[in-house]
Amino acid sequence: QKKLQQVVEWPIKHSDAFARLGLSPVRGVLLHGPPGCSKTTLVKAAAHAAQAAFFSL
Predict the structure, then answer these.
(1) Cβ atoms of residues 7 and 29 within 8 Å
(2) What is the residue extent of each domain of the chain?
(3) Cα–Cα distance, 44 to 52 (Å, whole number)
(4) Of the candidates 42, 56, 53, 52, the residue with the CA atom closest to the CA atom of residue 10
(5) 8 φ, ψ (degrees, to nearest 5)
(6) How far apart are CA 57 and CA 52, in angstroms?
(7) Per-position DSSP letters for 1-57, written without gaps between them
(8) pLDDT tens digit string along 44-53?
């Protein structure tokens, strides 16, 4: 959960700092695992916290 927060939430909330440091945010995240291990729930919560769009494929 912490790693997902760092990858998704921080670049959105701190875009000015990322730009100053010349860092590019990750373009996407691919989660894998068996059905029912809360992949979708985790990503929906992270997207909501970052006020970002969530697309499930």
Answers:
(1) yes
(2) 2-49
(3) 9
(4) 52
(5) -95, -50
(6) 16
(7) -HHHIIIIIHHHHTHHHHHHHTPPPPS-------TTSSHHHHHHHHHHHTT------
(8) 888 888 788 8
**Residue segments in the chain with a per-residue pLDDT below the cut of 50:** none
* In contact, 25 and 18? CB cutoff 8 Å: yes
| Gap between the Cα atoms of 37 and 2, Å rounded | 16
pTM over 0.85: no
What number of other Cβ atoms are within 10 A of residue 27's Cβ? 5
Tokens standing for residue 11? 């670049």
Q: Which residue has the tokens 């499930």?
A: 56
Structure-token match 């860092």, residue found: 23
